[in-house]
């Protein structure tokens, strides 16, 4: 029976998704009204995406996007907030990033109502499960929200989203998926001159996740190639944040463009405010502390958690090698 039960759940999830597609494609008739359609679609989508272990791949994201838009518009017209249906739709889209990103190319992600609806999902009065689904979805639209020449919204909404994101991440369990999504969004914000001024201190601390997320899984290249970032982060007057960013650059030192390498070397010699040591000393101390903590945690961990810790240790060691080389070069 233990072997049969998971199979039945998987079949229920997959068949519920097929049913959702049938419902969305069925024509409206006197016996099948719009109200019938949306109620049936909500039930079918819930059956497909309520179980974390069995999430069907999305074959046509346009149907999910149409479902999502309807429920956003319904709430905007004064209807009830369908938190769970929206959560299920976002989970479905995030679970199939390839097809979803392709479908989103034909979708106006910068429309003010859509921007408002997505930002609203991160507010403190929203259920944590909905906030997590929205967070995992956000990297899929990052290039159209953050990597753009003109801001998609005003300073007030940008500040509110940054503050809400910090609060959401604080409330959620820090799974690998949450860490990755948080880091992807933060890096895109860091590299955006529109969003960067609105990043709150709690957001910056998410840089700590860089050690446990594979670098090919995050948009790091544009950030480390941006020579303005060292000075922009230094202007925050937060030595811990700057030291953390310098560690990130040391981790990728051999890949940095000469202009960034030169600026990094110069900043490493500067004295940490309120301290007698240099930023090089602070970075080395930070790496050693985190290596010790990761090594102790690894002794108690197995499975994916152990894999993440091994990745973290490898990345920290790589950064330390570069730091030691910089110190030798100084001498």
Number of strands: 0
Supply the number of structural domains. 2
The first-to-last residue Cα distance is 68 Å
Rg, Cα atoms, Å: 23 Å
Structural class: mainly alpha
What's the tally of helices?
Answer: 17
What is the makeup of the main sheet? Answer: none
- Contiguous runs where pLDDT drops below 50 for at least 5 residues: 1-5
Beta fraction: under 5%
Helix content: 55-70%
What attributes does this structure have?
single chain, 331 residues, mainly alpha, 0% strand, elongated, disordered N terminus
Task: Describe this entry's structure for a reader.
It contains 17 helices and no strands. The protein is mainly alpha-helical. It folds into two domains: 61-206; 236-331, no CATH class.
Task: Compile the SSE list and pairings.
Elements: H1 4-25, H2 34-49, H3 61-76, H4 83-95, H5 97-104, H6 112-120, H7 128-137, H8 142-145, H9 155-171, H10 176-190, H11 201-204, H12 221-224, H13 228-234, H14 239-251, H15 258-268, H16 279-299, H17 303-330
């Amino acid at each position: 029976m233990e072997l049969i039960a998971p199979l039945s759940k998987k079949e229920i999830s997959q068949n519920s998704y097929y049913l959702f597609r049938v419902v969305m494609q069925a024509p409206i008739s006197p016996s099948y009204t719009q109200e019938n359609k949306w109620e049936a679609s909500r039930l079918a989508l819930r059956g497909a995406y309520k179980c974390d272990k069995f999430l069907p791949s999305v074959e046509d994201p346009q149907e999910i996007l149409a479902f999502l838009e309807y429920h956003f518009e319904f709430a905007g017209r004064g209807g009830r907030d369908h938190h769970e249906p929206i959560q299920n739709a976002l989970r479905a889209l995030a679970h199939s990033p390839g097809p979803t990103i392709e479908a989103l190319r034909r979708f106006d992600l910068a429309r003010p109502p859509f921007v408002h609806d997505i930002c609203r999902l991160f507010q403190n009065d929203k259920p944590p499960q909905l906030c997590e689904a929205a967070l995992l979805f956000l990297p899929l639209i990052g290039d159209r929200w953050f990597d753009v020449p003109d801001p998609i919204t005003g300073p007030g909404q940008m500040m509110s989203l940054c503050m809400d994101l910090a609060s959401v991440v604080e409330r959620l369990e820090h799974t690998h998926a949450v860490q990755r999504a948080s880091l992807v969004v933060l890096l895109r914000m860091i590299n955006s001159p529109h969003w960067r001024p609105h990043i709150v201190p709690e957001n910056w601390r998410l840089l700590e996740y860089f050690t446990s997320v594979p670098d090919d899984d995050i948009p790091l290249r544009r950030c480390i190639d941006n020579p303005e970032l060292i000075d922009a982060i230094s202007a925050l007057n937060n030595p811990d944040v700057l030291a953390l960013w310098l560690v990130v650059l040391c981790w990728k030192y051999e890949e940095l463009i000469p202009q960034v390498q030169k600026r990094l070397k110069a900043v490493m010699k500067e004295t940490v405010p309120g301290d007698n040591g240099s930023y090089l000393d602070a970075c080395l101390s930070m790496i050693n502390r985190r290596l010790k903590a990761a090594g102790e945690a690894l002794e108690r961990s197995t499975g994916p958690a152990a894999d993440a810790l091994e990745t973290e240790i490898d990345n920290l060691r790589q950064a330390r090698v570069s730091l030691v080389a910089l110190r030798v070069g100084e001498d």
